Amino acid sequence: MEDFIANFFSPNGPIAKELPAYEQRDDQIEMSLAIARSIAEEKHLVIEAGTGIGKSFAYLVPFILWAKENNTRVIISTNTKTLQTQLTEKDILFLKKTLGVDFNYEICMGVNNYLCKRRFLRTNEMGLFTSTAEVEQLDDIRKWASETKTGLLTELPFLPSPSLWDQIAKETDLCLGKNCPYKEECFYKEARKRQFKAHLLIANHHLFFANIEAASRVLPPYDAVVFDEAHNLENVATNYLGLVVSNFSMSYLLNKIHNLRTGKGTVSVFTKKVKNGDRILTDIVSNITELHSLSDVFFESLANKFGKEFGAKRIKKANPVENILEEPLKKLLFPLKELKRTLENEEDKIEVNSLIQRCNGVKDAILTILGQKDGNYVYWYEYEGKRRRARMSLNAAPIDISNIINEKVFKAIPVVVLTSATLTVNKSFSFLKQRLGINSGEEILLESPFDFEQQVLLYIDKDNPNPKDEDRFANALILKIPKLLKATKGRAFVLFTSYKLMDKVFPYVRDKLREISILKQGDFPRDILLKEFKEDIDSVLLGTNTFWEGIDVPGEALESVIITKLPFDVPDDPIIEARAERIESEGGNSFTDYQLPLAVIRLRQGFGRLIRNRMDIGLVAILDPRIVKKSYGHYFLNSLPKCKTVEDIDEINKVWKEIKG
């Protein structure tokens, strides 16, 4: 295999013959060979591969060769559907053409990403749609359904309303299995058949952990896994294993059972089919009415207890408010179970059973969160949105997932490869390995081949006030951000760590730079903002957390990344606080062992938005003076590549012109 890999990536190999501008990248070959050795020796591998190495090809080639030769299966798990799509529609298609190996692959999505033909065809019979927009979308979906070969939501030319898709998507608890009249036409079943024939399965981290939680019933068996974008693994696992119950989700469930405003709902259809239907419906309506009222009281009591300010508040003691929803939810189950027993049609029974299971799930989640039943979990209340339409929720999440991942992943799977451009802190993998419970395997650090000293100008502002002085710091940003944007004539991301600061700075920047389009996260959906940003190459985009990573804008549309603050998590965030307490209780230092490494990785992600190929040039501005004034600042600076650096804002124009040539 090693000889094959060396030849494949060589200047005279198959890639070079297909791509005239191809240049051999030694680090890419080193990465691919290291993975081949890990496969042969059945060892785990943690490998940081800087932007530009070509890590996708580096891991795909050896795993394709091994899976084909041994007739086995490999999971490629990514953090985003964007990378899933890039792998299946670009990278793997290229390798199918050039590798000279006949292999099979399949993209894997969660079950509710597939259209269910049975549920779709029943929608008209159920008559649950009342809005004109949903009826029109249903007509468009009907046409698409007659043409699609996959039934995947991602292939729809528009994004349907969540409530509409919820009524027609495949759901595990609503599946009739062998009894389904459309089992031979099932999109999900056909996808499963292809998955079992595939050598490569392109999944995402969320689906991977769903498979673990479901005792491996979601994905076919496999003998190796590659975690690309592996720096997100802890967050994804934490979110997946968590619990959430909100006033919105409660209202949605109750309306799904029976909508008091429209008089429609799942049970109103089925009660017409049974002898005692009117009485059962009357009981259900009575219970739904009571639950709506009590749900309002319950969440309002939480708001009175923890406040109506935007954000999360830790729940440190069990049963902070009375659980007035448990008994009414139990009471609702009686007429639902009676309806299920009375129905004769299996399809109808399974629909009602799904509602029963969901009511039980909400009841149990509230009991678990209020009762704080698991000592390895942190519990909190969250308030979001405007007061008239505020979302209030109860939440729980695991504090430490290292043992779970160690047992379910590293001990259970022969070969695990973790890769990303940002896995190390101060050139060390120790933080990642500790958080994920990695006790064995090889470590390799491959730096980006880009010439950052020639491609990037780094401006560090050491004169700004400390960000803890919020008003003075915001005023400094208002003065300096327009100057920086003028240097590059826009074409910038301005990255914030909070909506509050972003919203405060935005109107001043917009007013000072009226000749430039200034976009802000929250004003439009993310995809629309990015599309407009790429099309208007002089525009500027202000964004928070989700814009720090996973966005690829090569070329002149992005020539500057302005980082307003070092991206530390809010220390009183419930998960951060609970993990800090756990580390301190075990004799560690929560700041240096956890909060600082997290911030370093996120800063590296923000920095990495700028240079995406050898032709890119740009300015990175860090406006937080703590990077040079605090003792921990060197951790950030040592984790960034060497760049041409200036500390005087008035020098930027001169040096920028030199870089631009």
Q: Care to give the gist of this entry?
A:
The chain is an alpha/beta fold and 661 residues long.
What does the secondary structure layout of this molecule look like, with pairings?
Layout: H1 2-8, H2 14-18, H3 26-41, E1 45-49, H4 55-70, E2 74-78, H5 81-98, E3 105-107, H6 117-126, H7 132-145, H8 162-168, H9 187-197, E4 200-204, H10 205-213, E5 224-227, H11 233-240, E6 243-246, H12 247-257, H13 266-270, H14 277-306, E7 311-314, H15 326-342, H16 346-371, E8 377-384, E9 391-398, H17 402-410, E10 415-420, H18 430-436, E11 442-446, H19 452-455, E12 456-460, H20 470-487, E13 492-495, H21 499-512, E14 518-520, H22 526-535, E15 540-543, E16 560-563, H23 574-585, H24 590-607, E17 618-622, H25 626-629, H26 633-638, E18 644-646, H27 652-660
Parallel strand pairs: 1-10, 1-11, 2-4, 2-5, 3-4, 5-10, 12-17, 12-18, 13-15, 13-16, 14-15, 16-17
Antiparallel strand pairs: 6-9, 7-8, 8-9
Helix pairs in contact: 3-4, 4-5, 10-11, 12-14, 14-15, 15-16, 20-21, 23-24
